[in-house]
Amino acid sequence: MSTPVGIFIYRIKDGKSWSLKAPQTWGDMKVQLVNNHVKVEPNHFGFTYDWVFENDEFVDRGEY
Protein backbone atom coordinates (compact mmCIF):
# COMPACT_ATOMS: atom_id res chain seq x y z
CA MET A 1 0.00 0.00 0.00
CA SER A 2 1.41 3.40 -0.94
CA THR A 3 1.94 6.32 1.41
CA PRO A 4 1.79 9.82 -0.08
CA VAL A 5 4.46 12.37 0.83
CA GLY A 6 3.62 16.05 1.05
CA ILE A 7 6.28 18.76 0.92
CA PHE A 8 5.38 22.28 2.03
CA ILE A 9 7.79 25.12 1.19
CA TYR A 10 7.40 28.57 2.73
CA ARG A 11 9.41 31.63 1.64
CA ILE A 12 9.88 33.91 4.64
CA LYS A 13 10.68 37.16 2.79
CA ASP A 14 7.22 37.47 1.20
CA GLY A 15 5.11 34.69 2.71
CA LYS A 16 4.68 32.82 -0.57
CA SER A 17 4.23 29.07 -0.25
CA TRP A 18 4.17 25.95 -2.41
CA SER A 19 2.77 22.50 -1.76
CA LEU A 20 4.26 19.52 -3.61
CA LYS A 21 2.89 15.99 -3.49
CA ALA A 22 4.45 12.60 -4.24
CA PRO A 23 1.31 10.42 -4.13
CA GLN A 24 2.82 6.99 -4.88
CA THR A 25 5.65 6.28 -2.43
CA TRP A 26 6.45 3.06 -0.59
CA GLY A 27 8.62 2.09 2.35
CA ASP A 28 11.74 4.00 3.28
CA MET A 29 11.82 6.84 0.74
CA LYS A 30 14.26 9.77 0.89
CA VAL A 31 13.47 13.42 0.21
CA GLN A 32 16.41 15.56 -0.91
CA LEU A 33 16.39 19.37 -0.74
CA VAL A 34 19.37 20.97 -2.50
CA ASN A 35 19.33 24.67 -3.47
CA ASN A 36 16.42 25.03 -5.93
CA HIS A 37 15.81 21.29 -6.35
CA VAL A 38 13.46 18.92 -4.48
CA LYS A 39 13.63 15.19 -5.20
CA VAL A 40 11.94 12.08 -3.78
CA GLU A 41 14.16 9.10 -4.55
CA PRO A 42 12.92 6.24 -6.77
CA ASN A 43 10.66 3.85 -4.93
CA HIS A 44 8.67 0.63 -5.41
CA PHE A 45 7.60 1.27 -9.01
CA GLY A 46 10.68 3.30 -9.96
CA PHE A 47 8.86 6.66 -9.87
CA THR A 48 11.16 9.64 -9.29
CA TYR A 49 9.42 12.78 -8.06
CA ASP A 50 11.53 15.77 -9.00
CA TRP A 51 10.83 19.53 -8.90
CA VAL A 52 13.06 22.44 -9.86
CA PHE A 53 12.41 26.04 -8.80
CA GLU A 54 12.41 28.18 -11.96
CA ASN A 55 10.83 31.58 -12.67
CA ASP A 56 9.33 31.77 -9.17
CA GLU A 57 7.52 28.40 -9.48
CA PHE A 58 8.29 24.72 -8.98
CA VAL A 59 8.42 22.85 -12.30
CA ASP A 60 7.70 19.10 -12.27
CA ARG A 61 10.57 17.12 -13.84
CA GLY A 62 9.59 13.74 -12.46
CA GLU A 63 9.56 10.37 -14.21
CA TYR A 64 6.39 8.33 -13.70
**Residue windows where pLDDT falls under 50 for at least 5 positions:** none
Largest sheet: 4 strands, antiparallel
- For the termini, the CA-CA separation is 17 Å
Total number of helices:
0
**What does the oligomeric state look like here?**
single chain
User: What does the overall shape look like?
Assistant: elongated
Biggest sheet strand line-up: 3-4-5-6
Strand content: over 45%
Q: Give average pLDDT, whole number.
A: 89
Radius of gyration: 12 Å
Label the structural class.
Answer: mainly beta
What is the N-to-C succession of helices and strands? EEEEEE
Extended strand count: 6
Helix and strand layout, with pairings?
Blueprint: E1 5-10, E2 17-22, E3 31-34, E4 37-40, E5 49-54, E6 57-60
Key descriptive features of the protein:
mainly beta
What does this entry show, briefly?
The chain is an all-beta fold.
Structure description:
With 64 residues, the protein is mainly beta. Helices cover 0% and strands 47% of the residues. It is built from no helices and six strands. It has strands at residues 5-10, 17-22, 31-34, 37-40, 49-54, 57-60. Strand 5 (49-54) and strand 6 form a beta hairpin. The model has no long low-confidence stretch (mean pLDDT 89).
